[in-house]
Amino acid sequence: MSGTIEGHPRKAVNPRRYFESVETRSLEPERAPVCLYLETTNRCNLLCTTCPRTYAELEPPADMSWELFTSIVEQVPNLARAVLHGVGEPMLVKDLPRMVRYLKERSTYVLFNTNGTALNERNGRALIEAELDELRVSFDAANAKSYRAIRGKDYFNRICKNVRAFRALQEREGHEKPRVSAWLTGLRETVEQLPEFVQLAADTGVKEVYLQRLVFFDQDAIGHARPDQALYERLSG
To answer: 187: which strand partners?
Structure first.
């Protein structure tokens, strides 16, 4: 993207690396918003021990309506990147492929994290047809025992099967998008599984692996979201 905002030149934005160019010299924004995080749902079918929604109902379960979704997107005409997840599981949302397509028609880079439980062939094909750019699968463990301890349910083998089948579908039919990656939250309890996790990704056909920082609570820590489980035991610096 390039152009001007109120007479000022606007630098090109790489939707995969947009955050690297964020600088400010005053309280006046240098450009209009280019990225949106849209919590398409707060519902989830797992009970992750790193997530606050497992321990408290912060708000009534709900999906973002199509009307609310479009009204937000239409307020950001230069949108370069949209992330369609929050504390919920996006693939539980019926309108998700339609949302992706709506954004792609506006030349927006679209991605979201998923736990992979709903990644069946029908849903996978819908995301391919909608031209989703990136699909980030949060495995969060390298084996079934650790997965159950971290994510609260025994879905490890199901997720592996889903991802393996989806990647096989992509390879068989020549679909380069979405780019699929495997994610592991950095917990002291599971970080030693990283080599095994890389092998798991290879076994399921995934070519990218990411270690994700744990977001924890300094006070009133819950589950695994606590300082002693974080790799650095602090939130900054």
So the answer is: 230
